[in-house]
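To whoever picks this up:

The nightly regression suite flagged Taste receptor type 2 as changed. Nothing in the input moved, so I suspect the structure step. Input below, exactly as stored in the fixture:
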Amino acid sequence: MASNFLRAADIASMLIDSTSLLMTFPGYIFILVVNILDWMKNKRLNISDQIISGLGLSTLIHKIAQVTFRYTLLLGGHRVHTSIIWFYIELTFNLLNFCILLLSTWLAIHFCLKIVNINHKLYIYIQRMFPKMFPWILLPSVLVSLLISVPAAQSTSQFHSTSSVLFNASSSAMNIFLSVQLYYAFYALCFVIFFILLLVAIVSLFRHIHQLQKNSVNFRSETVQAHAGAAKTLICLLFLNLLQFFVPIFRMLERTEQRIMYFNVLLAIIWHILDLPILLRGSKKLQKKLHEIWFYLVP
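Regenerated output under the current build:
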């Protein structure tokens, strides 16, 4: 009876997972196509669009990998028979999760440098040099993510023998965590940097809005509305990455407790669905193109 219930729960979560992929797939392709065409036309792409494209591509690959992996496990009865397959599975998810967080951190740095003004030589120097790092910094970011992810994937794959079941109760969650502590140390460091910088940018925006209101500027003026819109976007991005931060942590715990898998699947689905509109909101160019397509389709 219990096995039938788990089987039904697997199928239901798989259908929801697949549906969320079908819902978001056109949106991610839209982001990539618009930015690629813009780059081909102008031979350049601004920093936020470069990072948003990287985030869109990474999140889309993550979603496809998740659906493919869970579909394969469902057909195979939750069994993976070789440690090398486990290694590539762990490497894929570790790499994508770290890439997404690292790109989000670059985006937070970019927004912070644009919004926050500090009259200090070092800060001004960083403001000037940061745009020159793109797009060249993106490839080293992927390589750093790979170097950090490989040892974690090797350590985690050792917990699965050739006949291992996905949810092996004999494997302690604490042992698994200790074996990949370097990965999670860097992962937590990136998140802390991202969180602090985005929080500073949000506070700076609200202070500027308050100053504008203090100077008797109408709340409905374009300047105030632009600041308010930017603040909302950053708050959404902060909440989104808070969700994304817990996805790999719950992935680690789900190896010892099957029920956690369903919660993690739900968390990942919410993250993937919310990610798309927030990325679109972060680019005026994408919003403009989306409105043009909408008015063309709905006269």
